[in-house]
Structure formats: structure tokens, C-alpha cells
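Q: What does the predicted 3D structure of Glucanase look like?
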Amino acid sequence: MHAITAVACGLLALVKAQQPGPVTPEVHPPLTTAKCTTHGGCVVQNTSVVLDFGFRWLHTANYASCTTSTGGLNTTLCANEAACAQNCVVEGANYTAAGVTTSGSSMTMRQYVDASTGGVSSASPRVYLLNSTSQDYVLFQLLGQEFSFDVDVSALPCGENGALYLSEMDASGGRNPYQTGGATYGSGYCDAQCPVETFKNGTLNTSGTGYCCNEMDILESNSLAAAFTPHPCFDNSTNCDKSGCGFNPYSQGYHNYWAPGGTLDTRKPFTVTTQFITNDNTTKGTLSAIKRVYHQGNRTIPSAISGGAGDAISATWCASVDGTAAEFGNLATMGRALERGMVLAFSIWNDNSQFMDWLDQGSNGPCNSTAGNPSLIEATDPTTHVVFSNIKWGDIGSTVAA
Ligand SMILES: *[C@@H]1O[C@H](CO)[C@@H](O)[C@H](O)[C@H]1NC(C)=O
Ligand SMILES: *[C@@H]1O[C@H](CO)[C@@H](O)[C@H](O)[C@H]1NC(C)=O
Ligand SMILES: *[C@@H]1O[C@H](CO)[C@@H](O)[C@H](O)[C@H]1NC(C)=O
Ligand SMILES: *[C@@H]1O[C@H](CO)[C@@H](O)[C@H](O)[C@H]1NC(C)=O
Ligand SMILES: *[C@@H]1O[C@H](CO)[C@@H](O)[C@H](O)[C@H]1NC(C)=O
Ligand SMILES: *[C@@H]1O[C@H](CO)[C@@H](O)[C@H](O)[C@H]1NC(C)=O
Ligand SMILES: *[C@@H]1O[C@H](CO)[C@@H](O)[C@H](O)[C@H]1NC(C)=O
Ligand SMILES: *[C@@H]1O[C@H](CO)[C@@H](O)[C@H](O)[C@H]1NC(C)=O
Ligand SMILES: *[C@@H]1O[C@H](CO)[C@@H](O)[C@H](O)[C@H]1NC(C)=O
Ligand SMILES: *[C@@H]1O[C@H](CO)[C@@H](O)[C@H](O)[C@H]1NC(C)=O
């Protein structure tokens, strides 16, 4: 009975265009957040999360896949947008199976989930924050503002990366007549590494070129190391500062700062506050510093280098540690993107090629060169996960109780 209904709905959907598919309804896990002002306090927002489009099943009316084994689109079924829209539908996500669960203002993301065949399989989810309308992404306009959240990185070993960041995606996810789901189905991803995906802002990838956009990594972390990094792009978004000027306390010589039992004890949750300070303290000025402060228990923990010019990312500091910062407009470019508005992304991932060495190995952290091998993580830490909670944003000083 259910199967018949599903097929009937599928045919209906296919008559229209590339619409949401019939098998799994898309039900966004609710994740409340709060928008704060100095005088009005914090107001709870009924936001939710949506799984990235690339994680979804695209299929024909006969349930044949519209993607190939290498992740690209089947060029027969998707020779052009109109054909793709006629031939293929996109399915809703099973969030538990994708490694994402939420409760109130808290979200847990898992690297591995139970496989139907026994053992585990890598889910490595990436999700975005949807507005209360569930139609568009929340556009975070954080220039001259601050952003706070709680994180529990205790179950992230060497080689894992629990990430919370901003990308300058279109708020609609590039919704168009051929891809009507848009942000509702997690479409439109871009970042400063210029990923090549099946669709670019809702339009078919036929050129094989990536989709670049400004990216602000608020936190990339595990229990052993962490970094926050602006990655500005050219205005025409054909290229970006891929390395960026990351601030990692361990690389700065603070080896017992972000550590289990360290100054910031990564065995327990804590609050991360990031402030985007402008030259004139307004929300229209030039981004002059990205400041960081932590709260754990009842302690306020300043960024690792407190005092001098070192307690924040400044344009001068970026230029000194990142040879390409100036070429991409440095903090000023990042600030304009923060002013226009960016989409909030969350992910958990590991890395088969470099084992996340840029985050936690050598001068960046205490992990050895093999600890981050995903097959080792899968064998020794199959329950590895990260918890993000209590997301708040607004005026400087408004998101953390005094
Ligand atoms: C969020 O939902 C709750 C419960 O439905 C409602 O009381 C509240 O007003 C909503 N908040 C906003 C900002 O719409
Ligand atoms: C593309 O789809 C067609 C029709 O379903 C199928 O015959 C063909 O084998 C597919 N090609 C690839 C490379 O998957
Ligand atoms: C979603 O996936 C979970 C775990 O794999 C499974 O137990 C559950 O039945 C699935 N839900 C639906 C609606 O298919
Ligand atoms: C959601 O979108 C509506 C309409 O565009 C807007 O008024 C509201 O401020 C948005 N809320 C958030 C949390 O972005
Ligand atoms: C993305 O798509 C939307 C909706 O079609 C469009 O308004 C916007 O200009 C596009 N953005 C870019 C950078 O192509
Ligand atoms: C993007 O387009 C190129 C050229 O058509 C193709 O080779 C590649 O597989 C596509 N990638 C994805 C992820 O669709
Ligand atoms: C993009 O902008 C950069 C710097 O402004 C310029 O050098 C480059 O030629 C531009 N590329 C395109 C394709 O317009
Ligand atoms: C901005 O605010 C800071 C901290 O309150 C203050 O020290 C500084 O003088 C202000 N700068 C301007 C240009 O108003
Ligand atoms: C707060 O600090 C006091 C001492 O200043 C300490 O006794 C108490 O345990 C702390 N509370 C927490 C939750 O850390
Ligand atoms: C590297 O670290 C992993 C995980 O902590 C450990 O299992 C392994 O023995 C270490 N290898 C070496 C060569 O020290």
C-alpha cells in the first residue's frame, strides 16, 4: 500500500520537474538558536538543520541512480538542467542514518553510523542552519557582531574535525524552476576550497569548475587541537585564500592550552565566543580584528595569546603568517562578506589523504603521523562525535551572561 502510494507520488512529481522525491519525506531536525541584542536580551529562534544536497539520493521514476559511482551526474539522464529536472528527483534525508540528531538547542553529529550489513559506515554529515520558515538559510550578518556556541569535542580523537563555519552561500540555496527544493534540500554549497559538485548554486555543473565563496572557519577542532581561520575570496569568486591565516594555539607555542586537562579542558564542554570587531565599532565599518574568548565552568578564558597585539586575528597578523592574505583582500574582504551575510555550516569529517595533519600534527598539534588514519579511527573510535549547542548571535557583549 505504501509502496503503491510512493510510486504514484513519484510519477506525479516527475511530471513537473526535478522535485523532491517520494520515498523519504524531508523532515528538518529542529535546532533552536537565539538572536541577541544589548538591550533586548536573547530571543529564541525556531531554526532547524538541513543535510547537504550532495549527500542525497537522486533517482529516476524507476529508482535508478542519477549519479555515477564517482559522484558526478549521469550525463545521459542529466545532459542539461531541463532533462535532469524531467528525469530525476531528489530524496529527503534520514537524519539518524546520516549521523545527525538534535534536541532543543543541541545537535550531535557522528562520523560513523551502524551499517545495515553490520559494523559501521562513515556518515560524515554536513548540515546548514535553516530559517524558521524552513525555506531559506539563516543569513548571518556578523560584521560588528559576535557569535557564541557551546561545543563538546571530548569524543573527537586525532584526525577528526568537528567544524562550525560560515560560507557565503545564497540564502535560497540557488532555488530555481529546475531545482525547486533549494535550501530546503541543502543545495548551493560553496566554500573557499572551491569544491566541484553536481550543482553550482542550483545550476548543473557542466564545466567541471568548482564553486568558490568567502568562508569564515569559526572552529575546526578535535580534543587535541583547534583553529579559527578567515578565507576571503576575490570579489568575482574565482579563487580564494585556501590556506587562510589560521589561529591555532598549539602552533603559537601554547601546547597545554587546548588539551585534555589543559587551560581549556577539552574533556568537558565550553562556550566559544567570536567577535568580529570593526575599525569604528559599527556594523558597517572595516573588519579590523577577529577576537576569541572562551567560558568553561565559571571561568573566562582569554584566547591563548593575551596581551600585545596577539590576542586576536588582525590584518597585520594575517599578512605576517599568510603570504596570500593581501592578494585576497585580507580581513577587509572577509568583513564585507560578514556584512552581506553568510550561511552557518556544521560538519564532522576525517581525511584519507593527509590524516588532518594541518590541524593536529607536527607544529600544529600533538598527534602522530598515523593517528588520524580514518581506518584506525573507525577501528578504535567508532562512536566519535561532536556536540554543538546554545548557538547565539548579536551585539558585541550580548550573547554571554556577565
Ligand atoms: C518559536 O516557537 C514557539 C513555540 O511554537 C513560539 O512560542 C515562539 O514564539 C517561536 N519563536 C519565534 C521567534 O517565532
Ligand atoms: C546512466 O543512466 C542510464 C539510464 O538509466 C543507464 O543506462 C546508464 O548505464 C547510466 N550511466 C552510468 C555511467 O551510470
Ligand atoms: C532511519 O534510519 C534509522 C537508522 O538507520 C532506521 O532505524 C530508521 O528506521 C530509518 N527511518 C526511516 C523513516 O526510514
Ligand atoms: C527568517 O526569515 C524571515 C523572512 O525573510 C526574516 O524576517 C527573519 O528575520 C529570519 N529569521 C532568521 C532567524 O534569520
Ligand atoms: C544563486 O542563485 C540565486 C537564485 O537563482 C540567484 O539569485 C543568485 O544570484 C545566484 N548567486 C550566484 C553567486 O550565482
Ligand atoms: C562536473 O562536471 C565535469 C564536466 O562535465 C564532470 O567531469 C564532473 O564529474 C562533474 N562533477 C560533479 C561532482 O558532478
Ligand atoms: C578575478 O579577480 C581577480 C582580481 O581582481 C583578477 O585578477 C581576475 O582576472 C578575475 N578573474 C575573472 C575571471 O574575472
Ligand atoms: C571601539 O570600542 C572599543 C571597546 O569599547 C574602544 O576601546 C575603542 O576606542 C572604540 N573605537 C572607536 C573608533 O570608537
Ligand atoms: C566556580 O568557582 C568556585 C570558586 O571560585 C568553585 O568553588 C566552583 O566549583 C566553581 N563552579 C564551577 C561550576 O566550576
Ligand atoms: C600514534 O597514535 C596512535 C593513537 O594515539 C597510537 O595508537 C599509535 O601507537 C601511535 N603510533 C606511534 C608510532 O607512536
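A (community wiki): The C-alpha cells above were generated from the sequence. Helices lie at 2-16, 81-87, 315-321, 330-340, 357-360, 374-380. Residues 158, 368, 370-371 surround 2-acetamido-2-deoxy-beta-D-glucopyranose (ligand 10) (CB under 6 Å).
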